[in-house]
Amino acid sequence: MNRSVPNKAQKHVFAALQHVLAVFPFPVIGIDSDNGGEFINIELFEFCLQHRITFTRSRPSNKNDGAHVEQKNWSRVRELVGYLRYDTAVGLELLNEIWELDRFFTNYLLPQQKIIAKVRHGAKVSKTP
């Protein structure tokens, strides 16, 4: 689920997080973030304690820790809205409207499959969805 903010100030990130938690289709039991100050702060820490949400962060100097999130930058962000910078209040509002519509499309209409098993036969890998 995406949400755009005017900048990385902790108050904007926290407000976006509260919006996402309010509209999420199921209870959130964990948050995984990078090491930025917009996430690693006392306000978010106390919020997670109060709501019994497990909070984890990536390891310092390990840029691949966020790989599962970062892989969606092309398929859900760049492919949908491109590479332009939307830095006006109107652009931010439109982006959040796009994310709201995309949330329903992605979560309810796109088919999802989880791989149950992978079997390797030499160099060939067979996957069972």
UniProtKB/TrEMBL annotation:
Query: Which species is this UniProt entry from?
Result: Arthrobacter ginsengisoli
**Family matches, as InterPro entries:** Integrase_cat-core, RNaseH-like_sf, RNaseH_sf
- Domain named Integrase catalytic is located at 1-129
The protein's name: Integrase catalytic domain-containing protein
- SUPFAM superfamilies attached here? Ribonuclease H-like
